[in-house]
Amino acid sequence: MTMSMGQMGRRLLGWTVAGMALMASGAAFAELGQPAPWEYKLQEAATPVMENITWFHDALLVVITLITLFVLGLLVAVMVKFNARANPVPSRTTHNTLIEVAWTLIPVLILVGIAIPSFRLLFLELDVPKADLTIKAVGKQWYWSYAYPDNGKFEFDSLLACDETRQKCEPPRLLSVDNEMVVPVNKIVRVQTTGADVIHSFAVPAFGIKIDAVPGRLNETWFKATKTGMFYGQCSELCGKDHAYMPIAVRVVNDQEFAQWAEAAKKKFASAPQNSFAAAEGAKGIEAQ
């Protein structure tokens, strides 16, 4: 059964409309600081670094799309104009200086054009400015511990907020935690990471940060959250059987709320024992000794 050109055109139009509707639905479901169903793009930026990452991603997408269309056009032109039927007597031309110079020089210029903003972005990510707040994040199997040396030197553990069997998790699923990292808005936060056992990776997509937490080594990154709210991430390094249950939750608040939280946290985490999981692991270690 053959399909007419009109039927094919209508089908292609239908596929296009369906794709656009799907993309629009993804944008409609997008939420700040967390993934969304059918999301097809990067999470909404909440820091200057992530804004630059998003811009670079979008610009590079345009460049590679144009290159792909150009190469596709060349392939179609070759198939149509230079097949055996159209050219029964093939050309014996073997060199064309202008074309050879062009297909060498143009890709080099494109790569240089891509490299310049790429290096600027890398410098922005790696050059940690003077911090208003320092937080130490320690990756453990399988939770995070956070220390605030600038705000009373208290420390606490942050675990997935589920029941013991992980059957009932608070929303968002596999991202909510019992103790969140809290930071003030519009302040430069330096995050120092290390691992207590194996390699972990501290990543928050909306902040544009991802850095390994390596045992015996102290790495650091930074962010400046420009929006208040909850922002979620996860360990992004395969670190063992419970790798999928090691979320990161960062609550961004105003200066007054942060000061109040810091005062309460100093009392809470100075007197209270660490969470039950960490305490149980510590007890196991003591018994083993």
Write a structural description.
The chain has 289 residues and is of the alpha+beta class. It is built from five helices and ten strands, in the order H-H-H-E-E-E-E-E-E-E-E-E-E-H-H. It has helices at 5-29, 48-81, 97-126, 255-271, 276-288; strands at residues 133-140, 143-148, 154-158, 181-184, 188-195, 200-204, 209-213, 219-224, 229-235, 247-253. The strands form two sheets. It has a five-stranded mixed beta sheet. The N and C termini lie far apart (77 Å). The relative contact order is 0.13. The model is unreliable at 22-29 and 276-289 (pLDDT under 50).
Task: Please outline the helices and strands.
Layout: H1 5-29, H2 48-81, H3 97-126, E1 133-140, E2 143-148, E3 154-158, E4 181-184, E5 188-195, E6 200-204, E7 209-213, E8 219-224, E9 229-235, E10 247-253, H4 255-271, H5 276-288
Parallel strand pairs: 1-5, 4-10
Antiparallel strand pairs: 1-2, 2-3, 5-8, 6-7, 6-9, 9-10
Helix pairs in contact: 2-3
